[in-house]
Amino acid sequence: MPEDLSLAALGTLETICRELAVLAGELIVRERPAHLGVADTKSSATDVVTVMDRRSEQLLQEHLRQRRPQDGILGEEGASVESASGITWIVDPIDGTVNYLYDIPAYAVSVAACTGDPAGEWESVAGAVFNPVTGELFHARRGGGAFLRTTGAESSVTALFVSGERELGQALTGTGFGYDADKRAQQAQILTHVLPQVRDIRRAGSAALDLCAVAAGRLDVYYESGLNAWDRAAGQLIVTEAGGVVRGAGPQPSRDLTLAGPAVLVEALHDVLRSAAQ
Ligand code: IPD
Ligand code: CA
């Protein structure tokens, strides 16, 4: 059962995360239609779905059903299977869909194995995020550290550590914005408080890759409101296994707020966000 997950069981989950993230990542690059269009919209006219979001999720779901028939699945494009084992796979078939639509090489497949209730309290125990354009695969399992593997001719494995920066004023800060216009107006308002207090802001367009950038020290700190479980399930474990902290307005990240980075920067940024909201 999940509480007694052995090192071997965690290793198996991490391997599946890695293999499936790469498999789906290769699919979305290889079969990206030359004239990719919008198949559908979700929460707003700019919250788009492409045919490849659906195909990627279908591929992930088929493999998980075959390899892990007792496990649950929660996916951004609607996959919803209840868990009989205590493990649920939380998957984002393309994180950074707008980048994918515009052929901007900052999108990823995110696969995480989680314990608990995906509609309530849950914990990621293994995860992988694959950017199929750069060939970068970020991965972690609980207690095992976080790693970046590059594929291709120059393959390498690097252990990840969050930034050593301690001053918020020097911190390169990542964030993102939701798809709802009112929510975006609030996020822009909060940003006017954050921007003067940090080195600069980056909005790369994929929360999963933003979290991995924090784990790799490419961003000092990151915050966003409105994230769904699939945006952050793998990335948040990769941050904590790289020595960082992930929290929300309270101790746990939530849809209201996700903050990630070295503890000292996360706390300083949390203070700024709290006073900005008052
Ligand atoms: C989005 C991206 C984006 C973040 C949004 C997410 P999607 O996911 O992660 O960076 O700012 O909050 O919804 O729609 O590309 O899967
Ligand atoms: Ca996403």
UniProtKB/TrEMBL annotation:
EC assignment: 3.1.3.25
What is the name of this protein? Inositol-1-monophosphatase
Lineage from the top down?
A: Bacteria, Bacillati, Actinomycetota, Actinomycetes, Micrococcales
What biological-process GO terms show up in the record?
inositol metabolic process; phosphatidylinositol phosphate biosynthetic process; signal transduction
Q: Which Pfam families match?
A: Inositol_P (PF00459)
GO: which molecular function terms? inositol monophosphate 1-phosphatase activity; metal ion binding
Kindly state which keywords UniProt assigns to this record, in alphabetical order.
Hydrolase, Magnesium, Metal-binding
Q: What is the top-level taxon of the source organism?
A: Bacteria
Q: Which organism is it from?
A: Branchiibius hedensis
Q: Which residues bind Mg(2+)?
A: 76, 92, 94-95, 231
Key word Disulfide bond present in the record?
no
Q: Which cofactor does it need?
A: Mg(2+)
Q: Which CDD domains match?
A: IMPase (cd01639)
What the entry lists under InterPro entries is as follows: IMPase (IPR033942), Inositol_monoP_metal-BS (IPR020583), Inositol_monophosphatase-like (IPR000760), Inositol_monophosphatase_CS (IPR020550)
**Which reactions are catalysed by this chain?**
a myo-inositol phosphate + H2O = myo-inositol + phosphate
- Give the family this protein belongs to, as stated in its UniProt record: Belongs to the inositol monophosphatase superfamily.
